[in-house]
Amino acid sequence: MIKKKSGKPVIALLFILSASLLIGCETKGKQNLSVLGMNTKEIGSSKGKFNELVEFYEVYNRENILNLDDVYTDHYHFQENHNGNVYLIRRIEPVLGEEWTDDNWTDELWRYDKNNKGEKLYTCQGLDFRVSLNEKYISITDYDELCIIDLEGNKVKKYTIEELSNGKYRNEDELNVNMQGWSNDSLNFWVGINDLWLPLKLFKINVVDWSITEYDIIQLSIVGTEFMLNPNTGKIVFSDFPITFDMDDLSEFEMSKEKITLFYYDLVEKKITSIDSSVGKMFNAEWIDDFTIEYDNPKGQDRIRYKLKD
To answer: With bands split at pLDDT 50, 70 and 90, how would you rate the model's confidence at 64?
Structure first.
């Protein structure tokens, strides 16, 4: 079983991170654009986000209070916190000494209320999830399908890759469903279809009338991991920094001095705009609000904020 981590190292880690992030930190309205259930690697890479450290600490304390030893903390998005409710992925593994097979493990999505009363909502292998801000619906990837459930765990909608793409793509091994997130008003959920790491299409699902709007992005040739959608506006910020598989690959590319460009793209207007460029350096860009992008200064150690033009 995956054992829960002691609270003390996490407190120390958060203290160190908070000390480094307090400089230039500000309080602002939060968007549903980033992960609350972050692992420590994600926290360390999210600059200027002290509020999220506090939220993470509060949720982590709840996890320890719940006294669970099978929380899937190795998952990049193992928990979310909404209105005092904690949503957790628990990985149920084979008993000690039993050999792993394709059938003797599973992932479970649980919700714990303010009184720490838990309810299992969904079970599948390789589970990923996103909860709408109003907590009416939860989107889940179940293998290569997208499911939308209600708070009782009832399946409301199910989409295969073939259904999402209106028959253009099939459920094949190299294709995968990539969840992007809910809009702040909880009316739209965004999901993508990727060919391994290459984004092919994005889909906006309206949960009022269940209409689907399709956006083709294969022409952008986004080959790396620097890609973030704003689910409120339908704008993307991305760079052409390539995929690197280990630190050696990353160091080798950084030493190549190749030019990297940061862009934003409007899905509705189909307009691409260049923001900045670097020499072999990632931007770690993120949406601060619907009109502001923040990214690493390519010529320094600070962060730059870019305001979108009206």
So the answer is: low
* Rg of the chain (C-alpha set): 20
- The model carries a pTM of 0.78
Dihedral sign computed on CA atoms, order 64, 70, 74, 76: negative
Distance CA 184, CA 182 (A): 6
Residues 310, 211, 199: CA angle, nearest 5 degrees: 65
Domain ranges for the chain, please list them. Answer: 49-216, 225-309
Which pLDDT value is given to residue 19? 38
CA distances from 203 to 51, 161, 236 (A): 30, 11, 13
- Main-chain dihedrals φ then ψ at residue 57, nearest 5 degrees: -60, -45
The alpha-helical segments, DSSP class H, found in the chain are 7-21, 40-45, 50-66, 161-164, 247-255
Q: Convert 191-218 to b/e letters by CB count within 10 Å (16 or more is b).
A: bbbbeeebbbbbbbbebeeeeeeebebe
The more confident residue out of 119 and 245 is 119
Residue with tokens 């083709």: 216
With CA atoms as reference, report the closest residue to 283 among 302, 256, 308. 302
Distance CA 203, CA 190 (A): 6
What CA dihedral angle connects 91, 92, 98 and 101, to 10 degrees?
-70
Helix (H) / strand (E) element for 227: namely strand 227-230
Q: In the structure encoding, which two tokens stand for residue 244, read together?
A: 């690197």
pLDDT digit string, tens, across residues 109-152? 999 998 889 999 999 999 999 999 999 999 999 988 999 999 99
Q: What is the DSSP letter of 103?
A: S
* 186: exposed, middle or buried (Cβ count in 10 Å: 0-12, 13-18, 19+): middle
Over the stretch 267-277, which tens digit does the pLDDT of each residue have? 999 999 999 99
